[in-house]
Amino acid sequence: MKFKEIKNNVYYCGLNDCERKIFDELIPLEQGTSYNSYLVKGSLKTALIDTMYLPKSDEYIKNLDENNIAKVDYIIANHGEQDHTGALPKLLKKYPEAVVVTNQFCKNNIMEMLLIPEDRIQVIKNNDELSLGDKTLKFYMAPGVHWPDTMFTHIVEDNLLCSCDFLGAHYTFDDIFANDSKELEHCAKRYYAEIMMPFRKMCQKYTKQVQEINPEMILPSHGPIYKNPKFILDLYADWSGDESKNLVVLPYVSMYGSVEEMIDYLADKLNKAGIQTIKHDIVSDDLGDLAMAIVDAKTLVLGASMVLASPHPAAANAAYLVNLLNPKLKYATIIGSYGWGGDLTGKLTNMLSNLKVELIEPVLIKGKAKADTFQKLDAMADTIIQKHNQ
Ligand code: FEO
């Protein structure tokens, strides 16, 4: 495959992985992903910025050969995770003069994870520069989006910013440049929700920093290149911003239908009051959709049946995930139904301890909803409506 030129001897040399269905054994991929790598040919030195996931490394190296890349001086590791560094051991054998350039944190990671020898690594710090002759690489440490070792590399003269995982998308493509479509926005939001949202405040900080660098293009580690950086930066400013929307998300698991009946009743009351709702069946729907739904939501209503006097494991899984992702929710509550009794609300509330939310009085019943249940749900709806209107 012939490498595509992005600008002035800077090339895309990454690969699509359309077959991959799940990332980190956790995140379902709707259409696979891409592992982006960039080749920068300076007048004196050549650098690769990020490399390749190990299972694709032979194809990646074959492409380097087909493009006659006989010598690489520097391999920039913007982050140690192995979807970008998996090919490093093979590359260091192939290019015996090459040095891995990275920060101290990433150095430790690649030495531990990939057994990269210390004498093949050059450590750089924030704002350091590396000359390739007529091109300069400048490094910006960006810990927290999403690993402590993350950094960005700015190709200064061409004003191209390699933003690592930040601003990326699990998205495959033929044209390396983003089309700013709704489909891309959907994939980028899903990626933000699943990977970046736990670091929302850091996303705010680095969105501003990238805006200040003002690159002509953003070259992320997954997904297409943004020729119009404003497209993705405006989305990140919105998603990571502190404002939540007039939206209630209702994930639920319902063994015999009574929890779902209560969820539907509440959602209907909220809709009639002008509040948008997203109902999510935890058992049959993709958890990635739940992650996306809570990016903007103001309120979470978790619906759960009970199993063995405890929350249904599917509800516990959803609570665990929401707690890990730590969205900008303002309010949360629980709707539940039990057969024998036990502790539902206490256990689920404890599982949401990361969230900085105000808890609204839960509704917990035995068996099926009755007249007084609907009164309690009316009160819950009134409270949510009043909170959303504040
Ligand atoms: Fe795409 Fe954090 O690796």
Outline the structure in words:
It is a single chain. This protein is an alpha/beta fold and 390 residues long. The chain has two domains: 237 residues, Metallo-beta-lactamase, Chain A; 137 residues, Rossmann fold (3-Layer(aba) Sandwich), CATH 3.40.50. The protein contains twelve helices and 23 strands. It has a seven-stranded mixed β-sheet with strand order 1-2-7-8-9-10-11. Strands 17, 18, 19, 20, 21, 22 and 23 form a seven-stranded mixed β-sheet that branches. It has a five-stranded mixed β-sheet with strand order 12-13-14-15-16, with no helix packed on it. Strand 17, helix 8 and strand 18 form a beta-alpha-beta unit. Helix 6 runs antiparallel to helix 7. The radius of gyration is 24 Å and the shape is elongated. The termini are far apart. The mean pLDDT is 97. The chain binds MU-OXO-diiron (FEO). The site of MU-OXO-diiron has 9 residues, from helix 2.
